[in-house]
Amino acid sequence: MDQAPITDMTGSALARDMQRHLQFSFGKDPAHAQVRDWRLALSLAVRDRIVEPWFKATRAAYAGHHKRVYYLSMEFLIGRLLEDAIVNLGLGDEAMAACAEAGVDFDALLADEPDAALGNGGLGRLAACFLDSLSTLGCPAMGYGIRYEHGLFRQTFHHGHQVEQAEAWLQQPHAWEFERAEASFEIGFYGDVREEDGRSVWEPGDAVVARAYDTPIIGWQGRWANTLRLWGAKPTKLFDLARFNVGDFNAAAEPEAQARTISRVLYPDDTTDQGRELRLKQEYFFTAASIRDIMRRYLDEYSDIRKLPTKVAIQLNDTHPAIAGPELVRILHDEHGLPFDEAAETARLTLNYTNHTLLPEALESWSEGLMWHLLPRHMRLIEQIDDWHARNHPRRTRSTIDHGVVRMGDLAFAMANKVNGVSALHTDLVKTTVFAEQHKLHPGRVINQTNGVTPRRWLVACNPGLSNLITDTIGTGWEADLERLSELEPHIDDAGFAEAFAAAKRANKIELGSWLKEEIGLTVNPDAMFDVQIKRIHEYKRQLMNVLETISLWQAIREEPEKDWTPRLKIFGGKAAPGYRTAKEIVHLINDVASVVNVDPLMRGRLAVAYPPNYNVTMAERLIPAADLSEQISTAGKEASGTGNMKFALNGAPTMGTLDGANVEIRDLVGADNFFLFGLTTDEAEERRETPGHATRAIAASPRLTAAIAAIEKGTFSPDDPARYHGLGRILRDSDYFLVCSDFDSYWQAQRRADEIYRDPAAWGRMAAFNTARSGWFSSDRTIRGYMRDIWDVEAIDS
Ligand code: 26V
């Protein structure tokens, strides 16, 4: 075999390396290789081409003694990696040629990769987009998280209701990671604290080992690569030989099973966080391992521990790693001997906290009892931190520990240099609601960093048709400078551009149509408006309002079947947390409505409902480029930002939305004419909720809503079980906390406005194109630049 350098980016070299890996890394004869074997072989050949820029980046960060960023997140919802790496390295044609030479279908090979679902939704996907941007910008950074053996559950539907199955992405070889047996830390739990020479010493009663697994994250055009380091839990001693020798084989394997439990499974965002010791163990496990790794790296390079904040910036992705505060104080004070106040302030200057939700049920708190039991030294430090905070702020009325619970948001806030919200509206609410007192005590600490999404995955890779049109129109370079999309604006009214823009969308819709046919057996009309709502199922996101509108439309079409209706395909995607009953009922209702509407001959070509199961990153990559309309219909004040909303706008789907989260900024940028606004504002929603009988009144005032609710209540969609949706009916009639009834008519009208405009393809095409041309600001590159400037005080490295 010839010895061309491994970084040879030609197609022939890639083909050669793929063949070589197939044979020598996996021991497969090409004659018998399956799609999976070829996929793994190609992955290693591509990975080889990442290693060099990765080493180069690591060396550059060390050589310049640069300040580094550490992003601590319980979740990284990264999805598939092969196509992303190929796109970032610009190896698309080469990889395709290599596959052709080997006689394998490139697309089938890409589709064979499992979707790494190490996250629940928005928060985890944001972390993944941030990794991409950190590498693209050349910011020296590292992501830290947990290497879950099982990601988010797989969703199937049985007679319309959701069934969860374990997800097992690691049951096949994972091509992208490097196991680092040497990078291991012992992480303790339980035990006692003893005083020794005036210092507190924690003696844990139990321990596990955290072992590092590194995945290189390559940026755009392969110029820089950072590391995602995920921790797996291992036992401190592998095997109890004494027990084995006396024949107790199960007990002998116990330590291994016990330890591995910690990194076994990702928790779905269930409604209660109480009583789940394992979850707290997971949080401490990955946070402590990460902090120790950070300190080891810092002390390799520097000796003065007090200068830590000048070289290290740690970002806490929500409160899940908030135990980083006390852990860092423990290391600085107990282990390095800094006086308590100095240790606390040094830790605070190093840490920053991002808030991602203000929903009361989603704000983390832990019982003091559990904390004393599991982390006795940390609980004592939390008391001391709280006392330190109170001493410095005598006007304070709120403490971190309240009625026997530790509020992690308060802890994270007190121990942060900067606290940020994720959209302009959300940041205002952070300042005026949950954290109002802390904000008054610390003016300037709370800042906004509106979320963003990576255009490499969410436009270049998932929508090649539109991407090619953009490049043909404005040239290359926009992929890492997304505001250049504004250069499309002068072309929007060119007949040629408009036609090509529409053709790109139509091609994506046809492709999605054949996928839906294959996946759920539904035949769709490609001329119908593809109206898409994809996100976790939550009451505040109001999928229920969308289904009610679907029912209403079905009823209206049945009443006037001869009318010229604008055809619609309602597409839903999303999982309900296994313990969230109402969300599961909504899932069931969507499926039940689909099964009635889709067989109604009067609906043919006019209205259909598609709910493909197991929504994940890969499905989003398929649905978003084919969407005509983006449903972002949360109750105002409840969606912190949303990021799907940005992906749709970027791919030329106007938003049907409330003034919530980043919708506000999307509307400001794309223009009010290119956005379907409806619904109450945050203030109006607050007020309405206080108005007695608001739901009853809204229902009485709307014959359409009355009829739609009546239909679900009398079993129109559940003839086998007519009472099935009485619970949902009661929620709507009695409390309607999320104001579905109050917003329904306004939503209906906005939908009919959309129908009207959709009938004029030129007018719709303009709106769609304006959405693409004006969404450049929503690149996560812009977001990360904001974090670098306003929070971390770090510079990008020119390599
Ligand atoms: C968690 C829980 C857990 C208990 C039950 C109710 C509930 C509701 C929501 C959550 C979400 C927790 C954090 C999260 O994922 N927030 C999302 O973060 C995105 C990135 O900033 C943002 O775009 C979404 O608006 C926000 O919901």
TrEMBL record:
EC number from the UniProt entry: 2.4.1.1
Q: Which InterPro entries match?
A: Glycg_phsphrylas, Glyco_trans_35, Pyridoxal_P_attach_site
Q: Name one GO biological process term.
A: glycogen catabolic process
- Reactions accelerated catalytically: [(1->4)-alpha-D-glucosyl](n) + phosphate = [(1->4)-alpha-D-glucosyl](n-1) + alpha-D-glucose 1-phosphate
Q: What is its main location?
A: cytoplasm
Annotated compartments: Cytoplasm
Task: Name the keywords, alphabetized.
Answer: Allosteric enzyme, Carbohydrate metabolism, Cytoplasm, Glycosyltransferase, Pyridoxal phosphate, Transferase
* Keyword Flavoprotein on entry: no
Which metal ions or organic cofactors does this protein require, according to UniProt?
A: pyridoxal 5'-phosphate
Among SUPFAM superfamilies, the record links this protein to: UDP-Glycosyltransferase/glycogen phosphorylase
Q: Which residues carry this modification: N6-(pyridoxal phosphate)lysine?
A: K647
User: Which protein family is named in the record?
Assistant: Belongs to the glycogen phosphorylase family.
Q: Which PANTHER family match?
A: GLYCOGEN PHOSPHORYLASE, GLYCOGEN PHOSPHORYLASE, LIVER FORM
What job does the chain carry out? Phosphorylase is an important allosteric enzyme in carbohydrate metabolism. Enzymes from different sources differ in their regulatory mechanisms and in their natural substrates. However, all known phosphorylases share catalytic and structural properties. Allosteric enzyme that catalyzes the rate-limiting step in glycogen catabolism, the phosphorolytic cleavage of glycogen to produce glucose-1-phosphate, and plays a central role in maintaining cellular and organismal glucose homeostasis.
Protein name as catalogued: Alpha-1,4 glucan phosphorylase
The organism encoding this protein is Algicella marina
Organism ancestry: Bacteria, Pseudomonadati, Pseudomonadota, Alphaproteobacteria, Rhodobacterales
